[in-house]
Amino acid sequence: ITNPNFVGSVPAEVVWAVPGVDAELPCDLSAPKGDKVNMVLWFKDASGIPLYSLDARGRALSDALHWANTDEQGKRCHFVLQSSDPDHRAALKVTKVVDSDEGVFRCRVDFYNSPTRNFRVNLTMIEPPTSPQIMDVEGNEVMAVAGPYLEGYDMHLSCHVSGGRPRPLVSWWHEGQLVDDVSESVSSSYIINRLFVATVVRSLKGTYFECRAHSIPTAAPISRKVSIEVYLKPMKVKIVSPP
What we know:
By secondary structure, the protein is mostly beta strands.
C-alpha cells in the first residue's frame, strides 16, 4: 500500500487545460535495467479507487489490458503509449475537459522487481481574463476609434486587463505585428500595458492597434482593437497671387 504522506510529498507537474479541449497527463514508464512495467494505475485526488488502469502482467505494454472507471470522467479517459518515445513517456488523455476534471492526478507505476514509482500531475483549468479595456492618456475608455492625434506629435494608449489564471501576457499589436509585450502588474489580478508612440506618422491613419490578453499558447487570446484617427499636416502649401 502506498503511503499517502509520501505520495503527497511528490512534486506535481502542472498541466493547464482549456475547457472543451483534450488534455494529456504525462507519466514516465521507463523501467530500471532488467525490469518491466507490471501495472499502471491512475488515481484522482484522494480517491483510493483507480480512475484508469493498465495491466501488463505477463504481456507486453502494447498488449496490456485497459480498464477505465465507468463514471462520466472515466469514459473520457484513455491511455496513450508513445512506443517511439526514447523517454518512455506515456499519458492519460482526458477528452473534452470540463471544470470538474480539475484536480491532482497520480500515476502509480508498479514493476516486477523494482520499487513502485509515483508521479503527480496537477490538472488546472485556465480562467480567461476579462476583455481588455483600452484607455487614452486622460483615462477615458476608447471604444472603437482612438484620437484624433496630430501628425508629428506623440500618442499614448493603455490596455487594462484583470483576472486570468495563469497570469496573462498583455501585449500590443499593430496590423498583426507585435509592438509591445512589456506590462506591469498593478495588483495580483490587474495588469496594464502602456503603449507609447513618440511620433505619429500619417501612415498610422486608419490602421488598427490591438491589445491581446494571452494566458497560454494553446488558448486563443482575448483581444480588443481600435482604429487610429490622425489629423494630417498639409502636404504642400502654394501661394497664389490674385489675378
